[in-house]
Amino acid sequence: MQEVVDEFNHAQNRIVVDFLSVGQIEEKTLLATAGGEPPDLSGVYQQDICAFADRDALTPLSSFIRADGSTPEQFLSRYARAYAGFGSYQGELWGVPTTPTTTALFWNKDDFRAAGLDPERPPRTLAELDEMSEKLTRRDAQGNLTQIGFLPQQENSWVWSFPLWFGGQIFDGKNITIGTNPANLATFDWILGYSERYGVNNLRRLTSTFGSLSTPDDPFVSGKVAIIFDGTWRYNFISQFAPGLNYGVAALPQVLPGINDFTIADADMLVIPRGAKHPREAWEFINYLSSPNLAAQSLDDLSGLERLCYVQKKPSPLVQWSPFFTAHHPNPDIAIFRQLAASPHAVTMPKMGIWVEYQRNIQLAFDKVRLKVAPPPRALQECQDRTQGSWQWYQQSLALRSKTTAATP
Amino acid sequence: MKHHLQRLLTGLGFTLPWIIGLGVFTLYPVIASLYYSFCDYSVLQSAIWVGPDNYQRLLHDGTFWLSLRNTLIYAFGSLPLGMVVGLSLALLLNCRVRGTALFRTIFYLPSIVPVIASSMLWLWILNPSYGLINAALAPICHFFGQQPPGWLTDPAWSKPALILMSAWGVGNSMIIYLAGLQDVPEVLYEAAELDGAGKWQQFWHVTLPMIMPTIYFNLVMGIIGSMQIFTQVFIMTDGVQGTPAQSTLMYATYLFSTAFFDLRMGYACALAWVLFCLIALLTLGATRLLKERMSHVQ
Questions:
Q1: Whether residue B244 has a cis bond before it, omega within 30° of 0
Q2: CA geometry: angle at A251 spanning A245 and A255, to 5°?
Q3: Which of A224, A272, A287, B130 could connect to A219 by a Cys-Cys bridge, CB 3.0–4.6 Å?
Q4: What number of other Cβ atoms are within 10 A of residue A201's Cβ?
């Protein structure tokens, strides 16, 4: 980001952006905004947009766009289909995507070859995924798992999307539906199937040897899992920890007939917190970032979002990419992620102010099912009841606030 | 009179920085949190009074009861363990042997290791596949045809793992026990010995009653500390998720996620006040339990 900030500061002489890199950005933005001293711009996660907007913590962006002689729809049309709606909520635009990702399937070609599978052919259906996973699984002389083909049990942050992949629904715009949609149950039965096939204790022993994503002990990098679902950042870690890894990237296998481009889209977002001292100038920076040089022919020509995404080896969230960005992107598989961002079957998290809590509850249901602590119907029902209760409370809280605001003269 | 006033003002002048600090950074937040516990408050907007609504919700909140249960199990497991290990170590280190100072330093050292570093270390120690504990247990377990525990990956073993880990930090209580032991007058042991008391009887009838105030102090501090356990579980069990399957979701982590992730600061304040009352009750219970026994010493 610093490179782009420097570029912006050099490109004009009225505004100086001072970039500050901090951890725990959500809490810091939250407390700074509550304290009345927010930064002019803040980079938050997509999951924060609704909660922050509901609590009046963000500055609406539509008025800036209109002041520039455009409309929010026109402005957003520059973004790829999967990302365009990320900042919109309750008829207003609250933030714009910066560095995005879609998710894809990564497979280890050497493991495929060793298991007698075609290394150039990833699984295309769910049945193939399960079948290949079995063939790719290895055990030692004592019967302990040493490698597994695919593992939905592997803890990750995409669990919530599995029901959508199965054609289910987790939120219908008004109510929580995790426990009421039959396809969700099928999803969790599938997850349970892996626990039953390999045994909870065996999987526990294997997964306890897995390191986290950004380490050389990551199970895909260290060769303990042959197939994973992940975002574009996976390339960065492979090139850092296992540069010679022979792997391929493809879309997730088909679960519903005819849908072979399912993907989960997500992005970091840039927002102007409520109470920012220089909102107009902040908007100018956002606008600059979102309007890169789409004719760039060289690295020096790259600007705005393209420069930012190039440095971070991520896809650009925009529909159009410059010739240099397209042809010389460091990630050799970037075209697949770009293609997936145009998919009509790309999904993202539901727009609701309690998403962080809901996601935690889904993760808990997943945990209970994979460890066989609770059967899928009970785990989903508990998740449904807990989240529906929180959702009603949240709405009551918003209603109370609007009533109080309306009563204030 | 004038001199008296002057002394008072001088005293106040010297203590003013502390009084201001206490008022602004402790007293005001404590009083404010009591007010907010009766409000709908998200931090980002002004608080709206809702009466006892937050406290009523607590009664029907399954996660609240679960986190309380987990915390009490942890507290009732780690407290006796910490007290027994701390006192045992103090008794050993109170012996007159060569290298006492070195041993005291070695046993105290873990207490000054930052919690984050020790938590990372224990993640390795408790790892079911690579960990030191299971490396030692594996031959025994395999002899009986069993698998060693999954520790933090198994809901049945995750709390015992945290309790076991709590013994790592007994250095502080050990030092306090040691000070207490050294305060026991030597004449009492001499008198007991003359009356024919053995080592065990001396410990039971002299040492233990005499160090009862120290035990009381460590018990109260232990209750306060264990009921507020946060950092270890936050680092070792996936933040506020309390993995596996919320078996390690503790009261303080639930409070934290409610306040800062779910933006329900009013409800979190109610949680904090309930915790305060619980700790006060437990402390009162401990005082009642040991009051009579401490009267000998006084």
A1: yes
A2: 130
A3: A224
A4: 15
Q: Least CB-CB distance to B244: which of A52, A371, A397?
A: A371
Chain B partners within 8 Å of A401 (Cβ): 40, 45, 48
What average pLDDT is seen over chain B? 93
Say what the pLDDT of residue B293 is. Answer: 76
Residues B162 and B233: beta-carbon distance below 8 Å:
yes
Q: Which of A393, A397, A401 to mutate to test the interface with B (most CBs of B within 10 A)?
A: A397
Contact at CB, B129 and A386, closer than 8 angstroms = no
What whole-number distance in Å separates Cα of residue B161 and Cα of residue B155?
10
Q: How do the domains of chain B map onto residue ranges?
A: 61-295
Q: Which of B40, B129, B238 sits opposite A209 (nearest CB)?
A: B129
pLDDT tens figures, B199-245: 999 999 999 999 999 999 999 999 999 999 999 999 998 888 898 99
Q: Classify residue B207 by its DSSP letter.
A: I
Question: How confident is the model over B92-110, as pLDDT tens digits?
Answer: 999 988 888 999 999 999 9
Task: Tell me the CA distances in angstroms from A350 to A155, A173, B49, B83, one per residue in order.
Answer: 21, 8, 30, 49
Q: Which residues lie across from A93 on neighbouring strands?
A: A88
- ipTM value of the model? 0.90
* Positive or negative: CA dihedral A104, A110, A116, A120: positive
Q: Nearest C-alpha of chain A: how many angstroms from B162?
A: 17
pLDDT band for A156, please (50, 70, 90 cuts): low
* Residues B40, A400: C-beta atoms closer than 8 Å: yes
* Closest residue in A to B47 (Cα–Cα): A401
The first and second tokens of residue A392, run together, are: 């009603």
- Res A125: pLDDT: 96
DSSP, residue by residue, B150-196: -GGGSTTTHHHHHHHHHGGGTHHHHHHHHHHHHTS-HHHHHHHHHTT
Q: Flag if B127 and A51 touch (Cβ within 8 Å).
A: no
pTM confidence score: 0.92
Rounded Cα–Cα distance for residues B187 and A341 (Å): 83
Multiple choice CATH, B61-295, 3.40.1190.20, 1.25.40.10, 2.40.110.10, 1.10.3720.10 = 1.10.3720.10
> Is A83:A340 a contact under the CB 8 Å cutoff?
no
Please determine, for residue A214, whether its predicted confidence score (pLDDT) is greater than 90: no
Contact A357 B262 (CB under 8 A): yes
Q: Which long-range contacts (CB under 8 A, 24 or more apart) does B274-283 make?
A: B274/B55, B274/B58, B275/B227, B275/B228, B275/B251, B278/B68, B278/B227, B279/B223, B279/B224, B279/B227, B279/B228, B282/B223, B282/B227, B283/B220, B283/B223, B283/B224
**pLDDT above 80 for B296:** no
Query: Chain B contact for A33, CB < 8 A?
Result: yes
Say if the Cβ atoms of B154 and A204 lie within 8 Å: yes
Alpha carbons B168 and B161: distance in angstroms, whole number: 12
- CB proximity A98 to B under 8 Å: no
Compute the residue count for chain A.
Answer: 409
Among A138, A181, A142, A135, CA closest to A162? A181
Q: Provide the pLDDT confidence category of residue A184 given band limits of 50, 70 and 90.
A: very high
Nearest CB neighbour to A205, from listed B63, B129, B241: B129
Share of chain A above pLDDT 70, in %: 98
Chain A, nearest residue to B134 by Cα: A205
Q: Residue B269: pLDDT above 90?
A: yes
State whether residue A34 sits within 8 Å of chain B by CB: yes
**Cα separation values, B125 from A252, B121, B236, Å:** 37, 6, 12
Decide: A29 and A44 in contact? Cβ < 8 Å.
yes
